[in-house]
Design brief:
Elements (H helix, E strand, L loop, with lengths): L1 E4 L2 E5 L7 E3 L9 E3 L1 H10 L5 E8 L5 E8 L6 E5 L5 E5 H7 L2 E7 L4 E6 L4 E4 L5 E4 L3
Parallel strand pairs: 4-9, 5-8
Antiparallel strand pairs: 1-2, 2-3, 5-6, 6-12, 7-8, 9-10, 11-12
Length: about 140
């Protein structure tokens, strides 16, 4: 069960009704943006308790790879974004550093239909399929 208090999400774990754990914080529009198309498609595909997880991992043809999947698990370092239609997106603190300010979109083309990270201000360049990127170096 989830409740929100002062910008923090409080998680109650069913195995121990008295245990509450606080996620670091709720994500804001400065952290990530979500297009209406992505929010609507997410609402269509999630099952009860699922969220869209955004991760960044080493690898891919440009250096770092976006990993986007449905997940029921909430980790201690996860932060949460709630869309206007009530669906949720989670991202861990480390990954957020590589996508802060980016937009989550749902894209349909001749090759595939998928959630994608677009307009990432942290990315200097990316591969043509949009699944990996190289970060800007200061």
């Amino acid at each position: 069960m989830f409740t929100q208090q002062a910008g923090r999400l409080i998680v109650r774990f069913p195995k121990d009704a008295g245990t509450y754990r606080s996620l670091h914080r709720m994500l804001t529009a400065q952290d990530i943006k979500v297009t209406p198309k992505a929010a609507n498609r997410l609402k269509e595909v999630v099952d009860e308790g699922e969220r869209l997880r955004l991760e960044v991992d080493g690898g891919g043809c440009s250096g770092f790879e976006y990993k986007i999947r449905l997940d029921k698990k909430v980790n201690e370092d996860d932060m949460l974004w709630k869309t206007e239609n009530g669906t949720e997106i989670i991202v861990d603190e480390l990954s957020l550093g590589y996508i802060k300010g980016a937009t989550v979109d749902y894209v349909e083309d001749l090759m595939k239909a998928s959630f994608r990270i677009i307009n990432n201000p942290v990315a200097e360049k990316g591969c043509s399929c949009g699944s990996s990127f190289a970060p800007k170096l200061d």
